[in-house]
Design brief:
alpha+beta; about 200 residues; 3-stranded antiparallel β-sheet; Outer Surface Protein A, domain 3; elongated
Length: about 200
């Protein structure tokens, strides 16, 4: 009984998110379907929103709770029936896109984390795209067919086994001779010092 009451109060708690004032909205038709395009001028990013996403965005003012949003959305779009969890997902998506903001404490940390994740994903995609180079008009099949007989032995099970044995034996040797290794580490650091690198 108390969990149902706490869930009801959570659904009636105001959502502390508001739509950004600097956003620019424009309605477009794409393949016979109406969408809203939102321009975030600060980051020069564009987002295409479904009608229900756009209406939820317009309804967020920092005072409405989930049930009010659901009822207002049902009044505005009677054919769309969304549950409270669906509206929560829409709000989360809008927040991740940076279209809404909150004045609550901790907003900066969550935005910094989202920004870090986005930059990490962008860097990963950039590095991945460097490994995939397409040269127009050049088919690598002929070159790879000629190179394969030369490097086929590298992937033979005997070669892989010998390589693994070598790596394992080097780790065992390092574990057994760890004191000698740590004693010689300053020499190693001196070897890679600035005078030796130049």
């Amino acid at each position: 009984m108390s969990s149902a009451a706490s869930l009801t109060t959570a659904n009636r708690r105001p959502i502390p998110l508001q739509v950004r004032d600097d956003l620019i909205f424009e309605r477009i038709e794409f393949l016979g379907v109406s969408y809203w395009v939102v321009k975030a001028p600060v980051g020069l990013k564009y987002f295409r929103l479904q009608p229900e996403q756009f209406h939820v965005l317009q309804l967020l003012n920092g005072d409405r709770h989930l049930e009010e949003l659901r009822d207002a959305l049902h009044d505005e779009l009677p054919t769309v029936r969304l549950q409270l969890s669906d509206i929560q997902h829409l709000i989360t998506d809008l927040h991740q896109k940076g279209l809404v903001f909150s004045n609550r404490i901790g907003q900066g940390a969550s935005l910094a984390k989202l920004n870090f994740e986005e930059k990490k994903k962008k860097l990963f995609n950039t590095m991945r795209s460097l490994l995939y180079v397409r040269l127009p008009g050049w088919d690598p099949e002929a070159v790879l067919a000629r190179l394969y007989p030369l490097v086929r032995w590298v992937y033979h099970p005997v070669t892989v086994t010998l390589t693994l044995l070598f790596v394992i034996s080097s780790w065992v040797l390092l574990a057994v001779q760890f004191e000698t290794f740590t004693e010689q580490m300053p020499e190693f650091q001196q070897f890679f010092s600035w005078p030796n690198l130049l």
